[in-house]
């Protein structure tokens, strides 16, 4: 889609949303501008999903824009505003309305560039470096939470029919975000996506596509095409962000002065 420079960080970014092959309406929305990159998936089983996800994106675009770092407080404010806006969308509906909100925001932390990664619901952020793929977010889904609580074996997850029921969402009773701070590292690639992607493609398929393809726009197209080739049962949204320069060098000093990578669990504060 484009190259983007935000507060001296040079990015190459592509974003694509597709209704898939089975749903009449695309209820996903995305934001890829300024310091904020967001995917929102209007919830199935509720009403006005496309309006709910658009309301989430609107809240972030109002708080976070321009060629500058975002602030943690602005992300917090955007999440609160998103909750209010989705409540407005839900007013007058029978089933209510809701949306996921998952994103990566460029922030300055102790004078160095970081990504504030956050999620509410089951849209994901992955980090790709070299040929390795790591899921940074933890899904707020019934299946994931039962496994994490030791109440179900991970091997049972794929066949558990309620695995995709979302336990947190913007507009729901529990809309608390989880968040992580990770350094901005040159040469890394972030992937934000809705469950319409990973519902069709397992992590190994996603990893292979991210590794084998060069430009973000090519990667985004290939991811969506592969999800549709597997059936396209849900709306599919992908945002691919390459960190070109302006961050830390992978083999040099990290922004905190430590070398190498850090676990993606530094904060939990949004
Ligand atoms: Mn979905």
Can you describe this structure?
- The structure is a single chain.
- The chain is an alpha+beta fold and 270 residues long.
- Helix content is 26%, strand content 28%.
- The protein has 6 helices and 11 strands.
- The chain has helices at residues 49-63, 72-90, 142-148, 195-198, 203-212, 216-229, and strands at 2-6, 9-18, 28-33, 36-41, 101-109, 112-120, 124-129, 132-135, 178-183, 189-193, 236-245.
- Strand 3 and strand 4 (36-41) form a beta hairpin.
- Helix 1 packs antiparallel against helix 2 (72-90).
- Residues 253-267 have low confidence and may be disordered.
- The structure holds manganese (II) ion (MN).
Give the arrangement of secondary structure elements.
Layout: E1 2-6, E2 9-18, E3 28-33, E4 36-41, H1 49-63, H2 72-90, E5 101-109, E6 112-120, E7 124-129, E8 132-135, H3 142-148, E9 178-183, E10 189-193, H4 195-198, H5 203-212, H6 216-229, E11 236-245
Antiparallel strand pairs: 1-2, 2-11, 3-4, 4-5, 5-6, 6-9, 7-8, 7-10, 10-11
Helix pairs in contact: 1-2
Bound molecules: manganese (II) ion.
Would you summarize the structure shown here?
With 270 residues, the chain is of the alpha+beta class. It is built from 6 helices and 11 strands.
